[in-house]
């Protein structure tokens, strides 16, 4: 696989806040482990257990990092035997691979688990700026994600497809597509794809050969499992629990039943099978008309509406926290409206603007191949770094707020 550039996490560029936090927690683990030898304390024992994975990952990283530094000193020493230099270089290469692996473990151990990580997901793709060319790009992205799911044995269902014409989706633009990936953990795997995807290419209708820029938005929503128990711990996502992100008061939803419109077979415009749900407090609307059964369309619509509300509630909490974080420490993060990736047909390359990675195999990316895997993995690393930075910023902001409170009372 050809990778042109990669500006994501490397051995030579490691998040300083992450390492400082890891070292501090590893030191806390060491002190508490010594303290527990003299007297038993249940709370201390629990804390030691929480810190153990971080301490272990830090020790592995620190050991590998020191080993590399020692080997580099050997190479920089002019008196080093020439026969030792190739061996030292080879060991540095191997240690660097281990260092990156340990660093990834360090990141994972520091970041609190995503509350939706174990859930299936809904992938909603809509055209943005660019007219019909943007709708054609939506079709390209839909095929890309379907191919990706097939490669990774992820079970998926196309629960909504609003195509521009009655022709096959492969040769027509798409106004909206919703792909349900029902495999547990799909949300954690695909959440890195949320944002605005941009395409640069010459449209088939362009007679002057000019390159046009279009865009499509991808929204990744956590999906409540269709059958309770499909996901470990799914009870906490209960749709009947008012404290759950997935809960919707039925009295807050208006249901409209109508005849399906557009292309789709003999049932279109002959039966009242289409369903539109409107969440009145937020004006969030979901319309489903793909199936012939009104009952099944209603189930799909409720599933999509619950997912939208869960994501909306979570984003509201994150925005509130982010606003507080910016006001105290100036640390912000990207939102769903940010441009995240560019697909350039002329140069046959794909660039992700978060991790900085560029791959030169556009075709393999669009086929859901290993090049797409590499780009997505680089973004996951980038997201882990941002999560750690936000975690450190939150702690610093909390410390400032506590310090300010003490000053006022004194």
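Q: What amino acid sequence fits the structure above?
A:
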């Amino acid at each position: 696989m050809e990778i042109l550039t990669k500006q994501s996490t490397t051995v030579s560029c490691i998040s300083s806040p992450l390492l400082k936090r890891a070292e501090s927690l590893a030191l806390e683990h060491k002190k508490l482990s010594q303290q527990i030898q003299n007297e038993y304390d249940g709370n201390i024992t629990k804390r030691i257990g929480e810190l153990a994975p971080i301490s272990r990952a830090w020790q592995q990283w620190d050991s590998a990092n020191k080993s590399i530094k020692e080997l580099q000193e050997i190479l920089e020493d002019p008196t080093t035997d020439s026969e030792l230099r190739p061996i030292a270089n080879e060991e540095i290469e191997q240690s660097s691979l281990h260092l990156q692996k340990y660093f990834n473990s360090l990141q994972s151990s520091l970041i609190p688990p995503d509350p939706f990580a174990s859930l299936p997901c809904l992938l909603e793709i809509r055209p943005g700026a660019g007219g019909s060319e943007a709708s054609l790009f939506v079709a390209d992205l839909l095929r890309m994600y379907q191919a990706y799911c097939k490669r990774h044995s992820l079970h998926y269902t196309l629960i909504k497809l609003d195509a521009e014409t009655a022709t096959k989706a492969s040769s027509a633009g798409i106004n909206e597509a919703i792909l349900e990936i029902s495999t547990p953990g799909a949300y954690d795997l695909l959440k890195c794809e949320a944002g605005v995807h941009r395409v640069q290419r010459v449209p088939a209708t362009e007679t002057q050969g000019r390159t046009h820029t279009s865009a499509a938005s991808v929204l990744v929503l956590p999906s409540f499992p269709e059958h309770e128990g499909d996901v470990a711990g799914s009870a906490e996502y209960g749709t009947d629990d008012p404290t759950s992100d997935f809960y919707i008061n039925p009295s807050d939803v208006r249901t409209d039943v109508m005849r399906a419109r557009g292309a789709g077979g003999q049932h279109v415009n002959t039966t009242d099978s289409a369903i539109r749900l409107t969440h009145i407090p937020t004006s969030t609307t979901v319309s489903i008309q793909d199936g012939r059964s009104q009952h099944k369309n209603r189930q799909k619509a409720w599933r999509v509406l619950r997912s939208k509300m869960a994501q909306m509630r979570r984003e509201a909490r994150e925005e509130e926290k982010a606003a507080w974080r910016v006001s105290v420490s100036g640390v912000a993060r990207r939102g769903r409206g940010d441009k995240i990736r560019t697909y350039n047909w002329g140069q046959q390359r794909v660039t992700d603007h978060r991790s900085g990675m560029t791959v030169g195999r556009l075709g393999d990316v669009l086929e859901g191949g290993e090049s797409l895997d590499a780009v997505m993995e680089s973004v996951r690393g980038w997201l882990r770094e941002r999560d750690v930075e936000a975690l450190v910023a939150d702690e610093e902001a909390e410390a400032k707020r506590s310090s300010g409170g003490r000053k006022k009372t004194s």
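Q: And what stands out in the fold?
A: The CA atoms of residues 36 and 45 lie 7 Å apart.
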